[in-house]
Amino acid sequence: MNTKKLCAALLLASGFLTVSAQKWYTPDIDPKVEELLKQMTVEEKLSYVGGVDWMYTRNIDRLGINRMKMTDGPQGLGTHGKSTAYPATVMLAATWNENLAYEYGKALGRDCKARGINILLGPAVNIYRAAMCGRNFEYMGEDPYLAGRTAVGYIKGVQDQGVMATVKHFIANNSDYDRNNISNDIDERTLHEIYLPAFKAAVQEAEVGAVMTSYNLVNGIWTTEAPWLLKGVLRGQWGFNGVIMSDWGSTHHCVPAVKGGLDLEMAGGEKMNPKDLAYYLKTGVISMDMIDEKVRHILRVLIAFGFKDGTKVDNSIPLDDPESVATALKVAQEGIVLLKNEKNVLPINPKSTKHIVVVGKNANGYVRGGGSGNVTPFHYVGAFDGIREVGESYGVKVEYVDEMDFMPEIMYTNEKLQEKGLHAEYFTNQHLEGKPLLERTEQKVNYSWSGGTSIEGMSKEHYSVRWSGIVRPAETAEYEFLAGGDDGYRMYINDELVADEWKVGGFRTSTIARTLQAGVNYRIRFEYFQEGGGAAASFTWKRKNETRDLFIEHLNKADMIVACFGHSSDSEAEGGDRSFFLPEADSQLITRIAKCKKPIIGVVNAGGNIGMQSWEPSLKGLLWGWYAGQEGGHAIADVLFGKVNPSGKLPMTFEKKWEDNPAYNSYHDPDGDKHVKYTEGIYIGYRGYDKLGRDVQYPFGYGLSYTSFKLSDMVASAPNADGSVKVTCKLTNTGKRDGAQVIQAYVGRDKSGIVDRPEKELKKFEKVFLKTGETKTVTMTLPKDAFTYYSTIDKQFVTDPGIYNIMLGFSSREIKGQKSIQIH
Fold it and tell me: Whole-prediction pTM value?
């Protein structure tokens, strides 16, 4: 036996190496791979391990090797033009429906086939630690089991269409601030119990074809350079046979990446480039065997997935596919979470609610998170349009009111005071230079331009705008100006710089208060530039301590207020973290409308929790709308009016305040050494809140319905020969509407165990749909793995004998039945 085979045999015997987990990898592939490898020149091999043209692998025409075409994901095709914009994948997780996750993936696969795309860069399964992470909306919540089940459905749906999925970001991309430099330091047990399981399920159950590394370091090593992770865990322990690619620009050094196990550097082989690779080959620092291994992995998926012969477009699938649109709507309907419904204010009763006013910046447009997960839809339905459409079908008057329409009429375009508003100038550069492309009068400035300004000749990036005019108040009073922008903005009064944020950055605001004299002209100027990424500009004014609020007076004429607020691509996006709280303008809006005498329903957009202690009590009803995709307006309206009974459940815990979070002391870099130590260990999310005994705003797995359910007759069997345990119960819809409930099965070791274990851990769930009055018997099988923990001594998952509690409930804090079993 040669040395390589001997090492493999020893690793396999010791449990550190498994056989292939991918069924697409069959023995007949290897001879084809080796034949191509034999024919490739050294130069071709060295270039093949780097991408090209942003979203492609290289082609080698003389060998009939066509390039593979990729697209951004995970919630739709973000590259190569318009496509269906699905709800964010955190909303998919909130459906707690693995079958629907499969349909989501299937629709994505069809979208890819319609465009000749081979590789989808999704799903993303990094664990939610804190609400502020800029990419939480792309992830699948705080629990590794829920994330894993959602990802498995998604990946199978994609790959059953003949398209290769890519699970990302391997591993521990749990924050997005300074993501290229932060080392997330995690102990071995925590890695294996919390941060690796969703990836493992993607590899071993869903048989994903590609894994993408993350930007960050783990325990002091960039993930692109970590042989213990890429070779040891991913290939050795899990038997992964697909391709390991870098995230775009996340490769830092040539030799460590080569030796670490990275196969494909995206986007263009900046570090693993032919020139440097040839040099290190010549000096003997790396070997040709190392390069061959990478090429072998790429060729393996190329052949296995049938991509070698080139991109094939399935013209039978329309680009704007009605099936995809239907899936997007279904996921949004099931993913909305009803958090509060005081005195059953919802669903809206058209007999008593005849007039609804919709407010808030998120009521209009396609509201989404920002970054590479962004998708440009063919069409979309905003919240206001959806509510108006359904409301008017019931004879309800629905109007949108902008608080800016009620700002004091003190702005004029110039000294002549003949035209109200501000004079706007749009420039095609970032520096307000040259002749403006467009000049016009604007009555208000409240823009979100992540999809572009829609002005002909203006690009989506590298532009600037100036708004100027005269302020002439009729009465002497103190006025407050609120200026905001993403990227840079600044404000002048009489040429005095009073707000200066003239730099690249996420959306932020400045408040300027000035006493202005009646009949006096004040020159005002608000300037903005956009470099790239998120784009938004806002400029408002009001009279402080105004005794009469025309905006509130108008709202009080309605029967109900629906406030659409929260985050968006302006404030929650890849490449940075957001605030734990609402954007300032939204916070001010909610504080203001809290004075209304009519019931207020909140519809919130965000990838996770928002500090709500100051405003949640003023709401009679609260829907968590996440980022609901192009059909979000329809889904929100369907839930508000009861056409759909809400069934979404939180995939993370909503803490009362950030200081309550188990990761509070270990999320940022307190010492400034770029090392973030995950000191909470396995006690993240509900595991941590249970251990700390802390009350929460809304628990993991929580979500209300318009009907009621009863769980009864729970039975847990003794362990079977294979170590599994069968659990049965009855679920009854005791209310007056058809609906769905998620039965959540948690397992916890009793306190007599030697090893510290969480009070409860999610190990199974099932979404059950019931007509009113209907009862179903539900059977769930908990596998042997449900009772294990990771032993750092044995280097594997083990089960300790003893008493285990099996709990069935409707959330982590609403347990409806419990049984104890003995495991020997």
Answer: 0.93
